[in-house]
């Protein structure tokens, strides 16, 4: 053990120091660092949780990448494309691509005895991945689709069921605005609730054969293809692969296929999510500045209180650098204590929110009913390293005053 570290420990842990002015100031600085670290951990965990949760929900209703007819039609009445494509279903063998499925959409109006509600039917085939919907089912089950016969079952959201006072097993009539108007009757087989209000009140799931018949399509015509990938971070690479396979393809009528990502389809949602990052950066910068100022003030007061000690050490032959290292080590130990307590507090608060969902939100405004948490220990490690480095660098400033202290005057300093 070096004599500098030994002296630093004495300064920190000697009980006689409890009466000194610097003690409460140092304690306040440590508490400030602890609270700052806890808030930074919470901020990053909440933002990561929001991004992951909303991404999963938006992708759950669609996919990471969508292939449709290249037209300017932004409605839910899509132009059909042939189901038989060179990339279907062989594209699943490509790196990063996990699944491909067909779909078709059609807008309609649900009519009950007292109410009516606009809706979009999403027609799916037997290749549809029901994992997301099953995870969010609150009643019933998903519809079973096969090649031989058309299934008259429908999955609606709890939002629609509550609005129209519908329940599992009820018959539901949907009108389609055409000339002449067309009507279809469905049996409610399942009710789901994702909490993503904007989508819950819009989509219902049916057998794709209904959409094909309503649009006078053949069995080989679909609205498009949905492609899922293994990791959202690989979206750009996967898009390039899909575009090479499908983006340059021409249909028999001379039209082209359009490839778009979930970011292109719902930019307003993902732009809103990205705004959270800016908020977190501002919070982290402000908290680091406050922590740095607190520790600098505390160490400066500690140095002024220890002027006699500094003068004595210099008179005994200690260099300015050696004395500065003593107070830097004092500051580092204090920062370490603050970071330790902050990590414990931050992780405990994250776990409490993650498992008990203590803080609720309005799903119509935030797309989720509670504050989501996603703890990533790499993020925690980076926060700790960054905080330690920043505060340690800031602590150098008050130690510069040590070089100005003269032993002859310091020993007599009172």
Descriptive report:
This protein is α+β, with helices and mostly antiparallel strands. It folds into 2 domains: 3-57 and 269-410, no CATH class; 71-255, no CATH class. 50% of the residues lie in helices and 18% in strands. The chain contains 14 helices and 12 strands. The chain has helices spanning 3-13, 22-61, 131-135, 158-164, 197-200, 208-214, 235-247, 262-265, 267-305, 307-315, 320-356, 363-366, 377-399, 407-410; strands spanning 65-69, 81-82, 97-111, 116-124, 137-140, 153-157, 171-176, 182-192, 203-207, 221-222, 224-229, 257-261. Strands 1, 3, 4, 5, 6, 7, 8, 9, 11 and 12 form a 10-stranded mixed β-sheet that branches. The chain has a two-stranded antiparallel sheet with strand order 2-10. Strand 7 and strand 8 form a beta hairpin. Helix 2 crosses helix 11. The longest helix has 40 residues, at 22-61. The radius of gyration is 32 Å and the shape is elongated. The two termini are 31 Å apart.
């Amino acid at each position: 053990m070096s004599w500098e570290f030994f002296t630093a420990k004495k300064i920190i842990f000697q009980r006689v120091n409890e009466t000194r002015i610097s003690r409460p100031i140092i304690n306040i600085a440590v508490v400030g660092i602890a609270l700052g670290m806890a808030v930074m951990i919470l901020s990053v965990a909440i933002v990561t949780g929001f991004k992951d949760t909303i991404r999963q929900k938006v992708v759950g209703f669609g996919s990471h990448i969508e292939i449709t007819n290249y037209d300017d039609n932004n409605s839910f009445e899509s132009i059909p494309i042939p189901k038989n494509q060179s990339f279907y279903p062989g594209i699943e063998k490509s790196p990063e691509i996990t699944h491909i499925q067909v779909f078709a959409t059609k807008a309609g109006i649900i009519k009950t005895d007292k109410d009516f509600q606009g809706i979009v039917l999403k027609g799916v085939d037997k290749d549809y991945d029901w994992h997301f919907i099953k995870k969010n089912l609150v009643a019933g089950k998903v519809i079973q689709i096969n090649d031989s016969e058309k299934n008259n079952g429908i999955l609606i959201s709890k939002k629609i069921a509550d609005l129209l006072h519908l329940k599992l097993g009820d018959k539901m009539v949907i009108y389609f605005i055409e000339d002449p108007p067309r009507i279809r009757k469905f049996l409610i087989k399942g009710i789901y609730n994702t909490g993503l209000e904007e989508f819950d009140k819009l989509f219902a799931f049916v057998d794709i054969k209904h959409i094909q018949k309503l649009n006078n399509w053949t069995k080989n015509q679909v609205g498009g293809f949905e492609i899922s990938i293994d990791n959202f971070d690989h979206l750009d690479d996967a898009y390039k692969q899909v575009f090479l396979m499908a983006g340059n393809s021409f249909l028999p009528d001379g039209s082209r296929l359009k490839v778009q990502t979930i970011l292109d389809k719902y930019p307003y949602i993902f732009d809103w999510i990205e705004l959270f990052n800016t908020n977190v950066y501002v919070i982290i910068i402000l908290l680091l500045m406050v922590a740095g100022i607190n520790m600098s003030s505390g160490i400066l007061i500690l140095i002024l209180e220890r002027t006699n000690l500094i003068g004595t050490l210099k008179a005994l032959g200690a260099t300015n650098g050696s004395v500065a290292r003593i107070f830097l080590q004092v500051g580092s130990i204090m920062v370490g204590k603050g970071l330790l307590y902050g990590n414990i507090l931050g992780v405990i608060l994250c776990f409490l929110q993650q498992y008990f969902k203590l803080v609720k939100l309005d799903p119509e405004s935030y797309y989720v009913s509670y504050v989501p948490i996603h703890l990533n220990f790499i993020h925690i490690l980076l926060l700790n390293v960054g905080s330690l480095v920043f505060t340690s660098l800031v602590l150098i400033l008050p130690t510069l005053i040590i070089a100005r202290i003269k032993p002859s005057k310091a020993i007599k300093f009172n």
